[in-house]
Design a protein that fits this description.
seven-stranded parallel β-sheet; 7 helices; globular; alpha/beta; 7 strands; about 210 residues
Length: about 210
């Protein structure tokens, strides 16, 4: 037996769940409530919530996750905290850490998506569409919170028009708990075995260069 075999459960990070969606525009109170509930589900289940450190729907999810005792990481478009709050008018409350990319709103989307095991989309405008395109093209596991309006109402049609197999798995659900159940099943079936195999053959503490 490899000396890391059987220990892998605690040797790599918790499941990370990205929440992407409208940062502005008309945000209905019932949709904001659903995002708060979604964040609560993520936090209660012990996952890490990742978002763009922006206001609107992603921040409602962040608040819900934090209220449930979860960990929240924001991937900011800003170069530093001053730019984050003064130029981008973005939130700080509820975040355990904010990663400052200095990449701007569009540029930071790549880091945002690649940092997530699964990505959940809610509502959304052009920025959310860009995040979906990155996630889909890179074969990510994607959840769509239905009934939240915006671009998410058209993703089935967009996927049908694209006609491109990327390996991405897309699931839909209007209930946050049900959607998380679906995403967790895919994670344990598809991603966790890959991670476990890596931990059985690689040193989880890394290797110091000689």
């Amino acid at each position: 037996m490899n000396r890391y075999e059987g220990e892998h459960v605690e040797l790599f990070p918790h499941m990370s769940v990205g929440v992407m969606g409208s940062a502005g525009g008309k945000l209905a109170p019932e949709v904001l409530k659903r995002l708060y509930e979604l964040g609560g589900e993520i936090g209660r289940r012990g996952h890490v919530l990742i978002n763009g450190a922006c206001p609107g729907l992603p921040h409602e999810a962040a608040k819900g996750a934090k209220a449930a005792g979860g960990t929240v990481i924001g991937i900011s478009p800003a170069l530093n905290l001053r730019q984050h709050v003064e130029e981008y008018k973005s939130p700080t409350r509820g975040y355990d850490a904010i990663i400052f990319t200095g990449s701007g709103l569009m540029g930071r989307e790549i880091e945002n998506i690649r940092s997530c095991d699964v990505v959940i989309l809610a509502g959304g405008r052009s920025g959310t569409l860009g995040e979906f395109a990155i996630a889909y093209d890179e074969g990510k596991v994607i959840g769509v919170l239905e009934g939240t309006g915006g671009i998410t109402e058209h993703l089935r049609d967009i996927i049908g028009m694209v006609k491109k197999e990327t390996g991405s798995e897309v699931v839909y659900g209007a209930d946050p708990a049900d959607l998380m159940d679906k995403l967790e099943k895919i994670y344990w079936r598809r991603l966790h075995p890959q991670y476990a195999a890596l931990m059985e053959t690689n040193n989880p503490d890394g290797v110091v260069e000689a």
